[in-house]
Amino acid sequence: RLRREVLFFPSQVTCTEALLKAPDEAAAALPNCCGCGLPHSESSLSRLMRALLAARVSLELCLFAFSSPQLGRAVQLLHQRGVRVRVVTDCDYMALNGSQIGLLRKAGIQVRHDQDLGYMHHKFAIVDRRVLITGSLNWTTQAIQNNRENVLIMEDNEYVRLFLEEFERIWEEFNPT
Amino acid sequence: RLRREVLFFPSQVTCTEALLKAPDEAAAALPNCCGCGLPHSESSLSRLMRALLAARVSLELCLFAFSSPQLGRAVQLLHQRGVRVRVVTDCDYMALNGSQIGLLRKAGIQVRHDQDLGYMHHKFAIVDRRVLITGSLNWTTQAIQNNRENVLIMEDNEYVRLFLEEFERIWEEFNPT
Ligand SMILES: [Zn+2]
Ligand SMILES: [Zn+2]
């Protein structure tokens, strides 16, 4: 049975540290052991992070805004594990305070951005050319914790193909060379 | 076979007058007869309008921003035809110039809006409790004509159920009485 899910936000504020540890460390971590004082239950944010962290081969991100530190660390972790990460973003938001884009670039992740007047307003991710993650959510802490938002997680060949084509079109169009 | 489609934007600017006419008038209308000078072909906007105008019983709208005159006319037309239209929107955007929300209210359509700090950032519609329309697109001419956006159109019982539940939660929460 193919995965078909929706996450609604705002997300409860939960600790996501265990997700960002190596599997053996995470298994050893008991609830609350990090002493952060936050709940260690599942939340829409932790589910979104799990869906991303399942990547083994490739991750395409097409995001208007990206400033969530947790999601930024998840993407950097995938890059460190050898997943091929490519990011497309909007230049207007990229320059704002708190954007993760500079950190991703410093970590060696490929990022391209638009130059034109219209916004690159997509908010989607494609995991291993198999799962599409898309919705209304910009990847910011403000949106995650405060806004009414939706994110679909769909294992769907046809949608993955169509969104990958859109990603590749934008990737080529934003080629700076 | 259940409908499963995605519209990408920006949309070509096309004439959508024929869609907003009564069926007999539209059938009589030849291409270009309205003399507007715009192409009369299909576009992402015309496909979105067709999906909405297919409503016969009910239409739920949950929209952060709604200023497109064409989409506003489509929604008013459905209301005139006796479709039960309910609109939820964000109060911050509602007050802006060009918002369709005031016109919808004047036409007698039920509208509710949030009061709190977080944004009501959804952009979805549910047609006849059968088709979910959701994506990154705010219903503004700026977004339709200039932005990179996606809109999924899905005939999917499970997703419709989950999004209807979210709509009803918000509808009750935004009840002013
Ligand atoms: Zn913790
Ligand atoms: Zn025309």
Give the helices and strands of chain A as they follow along the chain: EHHEHEHHEEEHEH
Strand content of chain A: 15-25%
- Per CATH, which architecture of chain A? 2-Layer Sandwich
CATH superfamily of chain A: Endonuclease Chain A
Low-confidence stretches of chain A: none
- Derived from helix and strand composition plus strand pairing, the structural class of chain A reads alpha/beta
Number of strands of chain A: 7
Total number of domains of chain A: 1
| Helical percentage of chain A | 25-40%
As laid out across the biggest beta sheet of chain A, the strand order is 1-7-6-5-2-3-4
Describe the protein in words.
The structure is a homodimer of 177-residue chains. With 177 residues, chain A is α/β, with parallel strands linked by helices. Chain A has a single domain, classed as Endonuclease, Chain A (2-Layer Sandwich). Chain A contains seven helices and seven strands. Chain A has a seven-stranded mixed β-sheet, with helices on both faces. In chain A, a hairpin with a 3-residue loop joins strand 5 and strand 6 (131-135). The longest helix of chain A has 17 residues, at 157-173. The N and C termini of chain A lie far apart (43 Å). The model of chain A has no long low-confidence stretch (mean pLDDT 91). The structure holds zinc ion (2 copies).
Can you summarize this structure?
Two copies of one chain form a homodimer. Chain A is an alpha/beta fold.
